[in-house]
């Protein structure tokens, strides 16, 4: 800034203050690892289910693609956070807004999966109880092989629900962590 007085120039310099937030590194790393694991598991399981549905010439439910997309967005969000960390520009507001949007998307997916697992009629859980858990098979034959595949599918449904629930809890956790980081530095 330059101001002119009685024939002389006066220079003043502004010093920009860069605010740095201090994130708990271990907690942030654990959060990223767990969310990557949950996201990639859901992408893998529902990708496998889409392949099975197409092989059997069956309709592919909308929530398979939905949850794959939400999980892929979560992976992109984590890589964005890693890039911001590398640039030393990770702001709590970015984390809060992004995690809240992902929390809502994951919650919708969790609700749909839980309705498929334990809904009113013809649920995955009822079919698994009838065809898998209540009628174990043994032996070296095609029935046992089919039973093992059905058991694997039932366990994959359970793992999607479990990791969806863990993902939702961890998204709430990162929101709380970001709010604490924001208020600790003010």
Describe, in short, the structure shown:
This protein has helices at residues 25-55, 62-86, 92-118, 124-133, 142-184; strands at 2-4, 9-11. It is mostly helical and 186 residues long. Helix 3 (92-118) runs antiparallel to helix 5.
Order of helices and strands: EEHHHHH
Tell how many strands the DSSP assignment holds. 2
Structural class assignment? mainly alpha
Radius of gyration over alpha carbons? 25 Å
Explain the overall architecture.
By secondary structure, the protein is mainly alpha-helical. The chain is 73% helix and 3% strand. It is built from five helices and two strands. The protein has helices at residues 25-55, 62-86, 92-118, 124-133, 142-184; strands at 2-4, 9-11. A two-stranded antiparallel sheet has the order 1-2. A hairpin with a 4-residue loop joins strand 1 (2-4) and strand 2 (9-11). Helix 1 (25-55) packs antiparallel against helix 5 (142-184) and helix 2 (62-86) packs antiparallel against helix 3 (92-118). The protein is elongated, with a radius of gyration of 25 Å. The mean pLDDT is 90.
List keywords for this structure.
186 residues, mainly alpha, two-stranded antiparallel ribbon, elongated, single chain
Secondary structure layout plus pairing:
Blueprint (H helix, E strand, L loop, with lengths): L1 E3 L4 E3 L13 H31 L6 H25 L5 H27 L5 H10 L8 H43 L2
Antiparallel strand pairs: 1-2
